[in-house]
Write a structure and sequence with these properties.
Elements: H1 2-7, E1 26-34, E2 38-46, E3 49-55, E4 66-75, E5 84-86, E6 94-110, E7 113-119, E8 124-131, E9 137-142
Antiparallel strand pairs: 1-2, 1-6, 2-3, 3-4, 4-9, 5-6, 6-7, 7-8, 8-9
Bound molecules: manganese (II) ion.
Residues 33, 35, 39, 41, 54, 92 line the site of manganese (II) ion (MN).
Length: 144
Protein backbone atom coordinates (compact mmCIF):
# COMPACT_ATOMS: atom_id res chain seq x y z
CA UNK A 1 0.00 0.00 0.00
CA UNK A 2 2.95 2.34 0.53
CA UNK A 3 3.41 3.03 -3.15
CA UNK A 4 -0.33 3.57 -3.61
CA UNK A 5 -0.36 6.15 -0.82
CA UNK A 6 2.87 7.81 -1.93
CA UNK A 7 1.50 8.48 -5.40
CA UNK A 8 -1.76 10.07 -4.33
CA UNK A 9 -2.84 13.18 -2.54
CA UNK A 10 -6.13 12.33 -0.85
CA UNK A 11 -6.93 15.97 -0.33
CA UNK A 12 -7.23 16.14 -4.11
CA UNK A 13 -8.29 12.75 -5.43
CA UNK A 14 -11.55 11.02 -4.51
CA UNK A 15 -10.00 7.55 -4.78
CA UNK A 16 -10.29 5.42 -1.62
CA UNK A 17 -7.55 5.97 0.92
CA UNK A 18 -7.61 2.49 2.32
CA UNK A 19 -6.16 2.48 5.81
CA UNK A 20 -5.75 6.21 5.95
CA UNK A 21 -9.11 7.39 7.19
CA UNK A 22 -8.59 10.93 8.34
CA UNK A 23 -10.54 11.56 11.50
CA UNK A 24 -11.06 7.85 12.08
CA UNK A 25 -10.34 6.88 15.64
CA UNK A 26 -8.71 3.54 16.22
CA UNK A 27 -7.71 1.59 19.27
CA UNK A 28 -4.55 2.53 21.11
CA UNK A 29 -3.45 0.62 24.18
CA UNK A 30 -0.32 0.04 26.23
CA UNK A 31 -0.21 -2.99 28.49
CA UNK A 32 2.31 -3.21 31.29
CA UNK A 33 3.63 -6.73 31.16
CA UNK A 34 5.52 -8.09 34.13
CA UNK A 35 7.15 -11.01 32.33
CA UNK A 36 10.75 -12.17 32.83
CA UNK A 37 11.63 -8.59 32.00
CA UNK A 38 9.12 -5.86 32.75
CA UNK A 39 8.10 -4.12 29.55
CA UNK A 40 5.30 -2.13 28.02
CA UNK A 41 3.37 -3.49 25.02
CA UNK A 42 2.29 -0.72 22.69
CA UNK A 43 -0.56 -1.76 20.40
CA UNK A 44 -2.22 0.13 17.57
CA UNK A 45 -5.25 -1.08 15.62
CA UNK A 46 -4.18 -1.34 12.01
CA UNK A 47 -5.10 -3.63 9.10
CA UNK A 48 -7.69 -5.42 11.26
CA UNK A 49 -5.18 -6.44 13.93
CA UNK A 50 -3.24 -4.84 16.75
CA UNK A 51 0.23 -3.98 15.48
CA UNK A 52 2.44 -4.52 18.52
CA UNK A 53 5.74 -3.33 19.92
CA UNK A 54 7.46 -4.23 23.18
CA UNK A 55 8.93 -1.14 24.82
CA UNK A 56 11.52 -2.08 27.47
CA UNK A 57 11.29 1.26 29.32
CA UNK A 58 8.34 3.38 30.37
CA UNK A 59 6.81 4.96 27.27
CA UNK A 60 7.67 8.64 26.70
CA UNK A 61 5.16 11.14 28.02
CA UNK A 62 7.32 14.14 27.13
CA UNK A 63 9.08 15.45 24.07
CA UNK A 64 12.78 14.63 24.06
CA UNK A 65 12.63 11.04 25.30
CA UNK A 66 13.32 8.33 22.75
CA UNK A 67 12.43 4.73 23.44
CA UNK A 68 13.34 1.51 21.72
CA UNK A 69 10.22 -0.35 20.55
CA UNK A 70 10.72 -3.91 19.35
CA UNK A 71 8.05 -5.01 16.91
CA UNK A 72 6.44 -8.28 17.90
CA UNK A 73 3.74 -10.41 16.34
CA UNK A 74 0.33 -8.91 15.51
CA UNK A 75 -2.28 -9.49 18.20
CA UNK A 76 -6.06 -9.85 17.75
CA UNK A 77 -8.17 -6.74 18.29
CA UNK A 78 -9.81 -8.03 21.47
CA UNK A 79 -6.41 -8.37 23.11
CA UNK A 80 -6.73 -4.63 23.78
CA UNK A 81 -8.99 -5.40 26.74
CA UNK A 82 -6.89 -8.20 28.17
CA UNK A 83 -5.68 -7.98 31.74
CA UNK A 84 -4.69 -10.93 33.84
CA UNK A 85 -2.00 -13.43 34.57
CA UNK A 86 -0.42 -15.63 31.94
CA UNK A 87 0.42 -18.88 33.75
CA UNK A 88 3.96 -19.94 34.43
CA UNK A 89 5.42 -22.05 31.66
CA UNK A 90 3.26 -20.30 29.05
CA UNK A 91 4.55 -17.81 26.51
CA UNK A 92 4.87 -14.38 28.14
CA UNK A 93 4.16 -15.72 31.63
CA UNK A 94 3.44 -12.93 34.11
CA UNK A 95 0.83 -10.30 34.77
CA UNK A 96 -0.62 -7.99 32.17
CA UNK A 97 -2.38 -4.77 33.10
CA UNK A 98 -3.64 -1.92 30.97
CA UNK A 99 -1.25 0.99 31.56
CA UNK A 100 -2.91 3.37 29.13
CA UNK A 101 -5.77 3.16 26.67
CA UNK A 102 -7.59 5.41 24.26
CA UNK A 103 -7.70 6.11 20.58
CA UNK A 104 -5.35 7.29 17.91
CA UNK A 105 -5.60 8.89 14.53
CA UNK A 106 -3.21 7.96 11.74
CA UNK A 107 -1.34 10.96 10.37
CA UNK A 108 1.27 9.30 8.19
CA UNK A 109 2.19 5.76 7.34
CA UNK A 110 5.04 4.48 5.24
CA UNK A 111 6.96 1.22 5.46
CA UNK A 112 9.49 2.67 7.88
CA UNK A 113 7.60 5.43 9.63
CA UNK A 114 4.35 5.92 11.48
CA UNK A 115 3.03 9.21 12.75
CA UNK A 116 -0.02 9.04 15.00
CA UNK A 117 -2.01 11.39 17.15
CA UNK A 118 -2.56 9.55 20.42
CA UNK A 119 -5.37 10.35 22.79
CA UNK A 120 -4.85 8.33 25.91
CA UNK A 121 -4.67 9.28 29.55
CA UNK A 122 -0.91 9.09 29.98
CA UNK A 123 0.10 9.56 26.37
CA UNK A 124 -1.39 12.48 24.47
CA UNK A 125 -0.09 14.20 21.39
CA UNK A 126 1.74 13.40 18.21
CA UNK A 127 3.96 10.34 18.33
CA UNK A 128 6.42 8.93 15.83
CA UNK A 129 7.65 5.39 15.25
CA UNK A 130 10.71 5.08 13.02
CA UNK A 131 11.94 1.72 11.86
CA UNK A 132 15.65 1.09 12.26
CA UNK A 133 17.85 -0.76 9.80
CA UNK A 134 17.47 -4.18 11.38
CA UNK A 135 13.70 -3.97 10.64
CA UNK A 136 12.49 -5.27 14.00
CA UNK A 137 13.58 -2.34 16.09
CA UNK A 138 11.86 1.01 16.00
CA UNK A 139 12.34 4.29 17.82
CA UNK A 140 9.27 5.61 19.60
CA UNK A 141 9.05 9.22 20.69
CA UNK A 142 6.73 12.15 21.22
CA UNK A 143 6.93 14.82 18.57
CA UNK A 144 4.64 17.43 20.08
MN1 LIG B 1 4.58 -8.51 26.29
Amino acid sequence: MDEYWRKRNFQKTTEPQGEITLGGNKIYVIQKHAATHLHFDLRLEMDGVLKSWAVPKEPPTEVGLKRLAVQVEDHPIDYANFEGTIPEGEYGAGTVEIWDKGTYRLIERTENKLIVDIEGNRLRGTYVLIRLKDRKNWLFFKKK
